[in-house]
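User: My instructor asked us to take a sequence, write out its structure as tokens, and then describe one feature of it. I'm not sure where to start. Here is the sequence I was given:
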Amino acid sequence: MYLPEFDEIRPFTDHEIPSAMQRLADSSQLENISAYLYPGKPFDVFKERVRSCKTIFDFQEGVLLSAAKKIIKDTSYGFTFDGISSLDHDKSYLFISNHRDIVLDSALFQLALFSNHFPTSEIAFGDNLLSSDFVVDFGKSNKMFKVLRNANPREFYHNSLVLSKYIRNAVTVRNSSVWIAQRNGRTKDGFDTTEQGVLKMLDMSGHNQFVDDFSALNIVPVSVSYEYEPCDMLKVNELYISRRQKYIKMPGEDFNSILTGIMQFKGSIHFVAAPPLTRQQIEEMATLGDGNDRFKAVAQLLDDIVVSNYKLWKTNYIAYDLLHESHTYAGFYSQADVNAFQSYMGYKLSSLEGEKGELEELFLTIYANSVVNKRRFGTI
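Assistant: Let's start with the prediction itself. The structure tokens for your sequence are:
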């Protein structure tokens, strides 16, 4: 059971699913989803499938997981994952993942859990993305809980404390795993780094026992890797504008990013779930100092693991060599691969306004920085 203090952020319970399914079935937005998932098939069939779901498991198995499989089939060369099968089915975990796509990072990870006969996890989702009643019903029926972001300092502290309590309660009391990104928002520049603020938030619900508090969360670092970066064109545009002025999102921009990430071709996709952080590792972090020094040490440990498990593709090696005018990684690709990637880049940038050379530099940097990160941590 959820505690009353979590009512503002928690997902739906099974008891609330039937009415949520009815609202989804009655929404005009569902027909667009049906047309994408099942082109040429009667909408009424999909509508009835949604309406017939009585539990969260029904909705996830009957609708969402089949949708994830179709996305993989239609927009990728394939989806692989490592490490999940070695986790303990009797334990719950806090999965801390690098973040490249708004929806797919967590959605595909749920498919990986399901495929290994694990319960799906709860998913942290920024309230800025819950843009309509339809999205709220869809998300909360999929074990998504809200991360409240826009607030004054006093409200921010309160929201962070409630969020911290919610996550700790899920993992340690309700035996429910949780997925959360390592940072607030997707990485735009290809550098996967853990924000200390995320770790400080997690510690807020502890008992001032650093080792015990972090050990209890069973933290599993997760590495997400796409051959073709989701929303690469949109990220380039944001980075280009941000060099000149404060970037302000347009209404509906996040939702557009969600759709672009889903529909864009992603090449190969690979996820890795590392072994959980051990008590010994956390004890070592605790000896490195107090306060921020400890959080910094844990963040660096997570970054090291995420980066070491991140899978590099031809696109990353090609981008690095093009950006640095080198042939350092020429053994990983052919000239035909280079020509294809340059054509891909040209197509993606053709609709953007700006100085061509700078746009190309930003595009290449997004892909090349994954190699830079590996070099920085000595894992390449």
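For the description part of your assignment, you could build on this observation: The first strand starts at residue 78 and ends at 82. Try explaining in your own words what that tells you about the chain.
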